[in-house]
Structure formats: structure tokens, C-alpha cells
Write a structure and sequence with these properties.
It contains 13 helices and 9 strands. With 301 residues, it is α/β, with parallel strands linked by helices. The protein has 3 domains: 157 residues, NAD(P)-binding Rossmann-like Domain (Rossmann fold, 3-Layer(aba) Sandwich), CATH 3.40.50; 101 residues, N-(1-d-carboxylethyl)-l-norvaline Dehydrogenase, domain 2, CATH 1.10.1040; 32 residues. Strand 3, helix 3 and strand 4 form a beta-alpha-beta unit. Keywords: Gluconate utilization, Oxidoreductase.
Length: 301
Amino acid sequence: MEIGIIGLGKMGGNMAERLRRAGHTVVGFDRSPQSSRDVDSLESLVGRLSAPRVVWVMVPAGDPTRATVQELGGLLSPGDVIIDGGNSRYTDDLVHAEELRAKQIGYVDAGVSGGVWGLENGYALMVGGSTEDVAKAQPVFDALKPEGEAGFVHAGPVGAGHFAKMVHNGIEYGLMQAYAEGYELLAATDVVTDVPGVLASWTQGTVIRSWLLDLLVRALEEDPDLAEITGYVDDSGEGRWTVEEAINHRVPMPAISAALYARFASRQDDSPAMKAVAALRNQFGGHAVRSVAKGEAEAPA
């Protein structure tokens, strides 16, 4: 089938290539003239597709996605379908679907997982939308998903796909943090002399084996002491949204919340909160504090 893809970065470009390998016709557009785009405008992309058109938006979440969906809404025709495959918040999906419904344009939200490995391995897809709209794009979903029965789910109505992907990413935060803390403890002791070897041994036969563990082993093979990177860790927003939704629904989520806060802590060169703790210990117990100027512990005069 024919499909337009907007956004040809690491994910979008690889998705376009996987679809072409599966025999689909892809018309790609990206704002960057240096990209491998097929057309130089959204108007040209829409004009190259046969009705009913399916257009996949793969641009950064937030304003870039909102602007793209709004512009497409003015170019497409009744019966066409827009798929948002970025990491949008599910509440944005509800707004987009309502605005497009008045124009009889379908809307599907697709949570996509697979990263840069998806080209060869396939992408896990969690989609939300009406049965009719999802069916129009089903050949595309079938081509993008991994081989086998799993890897694709019609999770529910509009919003369900991105809600599922949000929770997926929240779980990812917790898993990565657990592996990272285990790595740090192994590296901190003199008892274990082959930390990368221990982690590699866990990839076979253990109950904690996973693709994330495989990737940590790969990272340590490339940089055994992780000396080439800093400990600054950003977040895309989905971990925050997961915790916010947990609060809204009164669902206890201590592991994912702690993982999110650990990322916040990673961005502080010198924690104001821990400065306050040091000052309090000094005030009530006379405990030594470390001077900024001298960089050494000083007891109170």
C-alpha cells in the first residue's frame, strides 16, 4: 500500500526503509533539505498519495506534532487517516481526534518501541483508534512489527496506544535504574573482579535477563569503565506522565517514581537538598562539613 511518512530521523527513516523492503510505497518528507526526503512539502506529499490516504507523523512530541497534525488536517480529505507515531501524551490524541472528526479524517495514535534496532528486528506497536481507521493501516502495522504473533496490539480507542507506550516507558525507567544500581554496587566492591563478565553471565538462563541487560553488556564492552560518558540523564517526559497518571488513579508506583527522581538527581552538580542536610547535621550535632573553597571536611570552630 501507499503511505506518507513525515519525519525521517533515526526512527522515521528506518521505518520508511523497513516498509519499502516489505514492498510498500513510501513518500517521505522531512523539514531538513539534507534528509532523504522524496518531496519538499506536505502539500506535495499529500498530492503523491492515492485516496484514502494514510499519513504517519514521526516528529518530536508537543508543538511540532500539533502543528503537523493541524496542517495535515487542512490538506487531507474525508476518509483519510493520520497516524501519530511519536511520543505524544495521550491527552493530545483526544484533542486531535476531535478536531479531525469534524472533517471526517481518521486519527490513530501509535506507541512505537524498538529504537534504532527496529529496522532489522521490527517495532513493537501499541495503537489506539477506531476499528475502521486501524484497519486502513493494518498492512503497514504488519510490515513494521516483529515476526510472530506478538508485537502489535490494538490497545483500545484513541489515546490507548500512547497511554500504553507511556506506561511501557515508565517501566523502562525502573528496569534501567535497577540494572544501573546493581552495576554500581558490583563496581564498588573489591570482591568482584570481573564486573562486565558478571553482567554478561546474567544474559543467559537467569530470571533477570532482558534486552536492556544485553545492551548494558554491549555498552561495557565498548567502554568497560563507562569513562567516556557523564552521568547526566535526561527524560523525554513519559516517565513524568506515568507518575502523574499513577497519582491521578491512586496507583502506588514507588520503583518508577524513584527512577524518575534519580534522573533529576543526575543533573545536579551539587545538590541543594544535600547541602541543607549537611548544614543541619552541622547545626544539631557539630558534624563536620566539607568546605567548598578547601574541598575538605571541617569541624565547627
